[in-house]
Amino acid sequence: MEFCPTCGNLLRYEGGGSSRFFCSTCPYVAYIERRVEIKKKQLLVKKSIEPVVTKDDIPTAAETEAPCPRCGHDKAYFKSMQIRSADEPESRFYRCLKCEFTWREE
């Protein structure tokens, strides 16, 4: 969408032999060139995702009975953390004692 630099109204498009944007309120006209020029190229790099909780964050002292979604083992270490706003419930992070898979329950 393009807006008129004179009055601020939305410019209308008119195609055909000479394509142009024009303002229906004032006499402003902007002719469109057929040639497109890329002024700046930038290579986008995907950032790596950092885990919220690492192995070192979950202590090995607190155990509970929680079935592992990966291997089905019934015991896991756990830690509760407040990672969202204060009015949201805390999140519980688990790490399986057998396969060391880490998962989260809200």
UniProtKB/TrEMBL annotation:
InterPro entries registered for this protein in UniProt: DNA-dir_RNA_pol-M_15_CS (IPR019761), Rpa12/Rpb9/Rpc10/TFS (IPR012164), TFS (IPR006288), Zn_ribbon_RPB9 (IPR001529), Zn_ribbon_RPC11_C (IPR034014), Znf_TFIIS (IPR001222)
CDD domains: Zn-ribbon_RPC11 (cd10509)
Keywords: DNA-directed RNA polymerase, Metal-binding, Nucleus, Transcription, Transcription regulation, Zinc, Zinc-finger
Pfam family, one: Zn_ribbon_TFIIS
UniProt entry tagged with the keyword Isomerase: no
Binding site for Zn(2+) 1: C4, C7, C23, C26
Record's subcellular location: Nucleus
Domain of life from the UniProt record: Eukaryota
Keyword flag Transcription regulation: yes
Family as reported in the entry's similarity comment: Belongs to the archaeal rpoM/eukaryotic RPA12/RPB9/RPC11 RNA polymerase family.
Protein role: DNA-dependent RNA polymerase catalyzes the transcription of DNA into RNA using the four ribonucleoside triphosphates as substrates.
Name of the protein in question: DNA-directed RNA polymerase subunit
UniProt source species: Arabidopsis thaliana x Arabidopsis arenosa
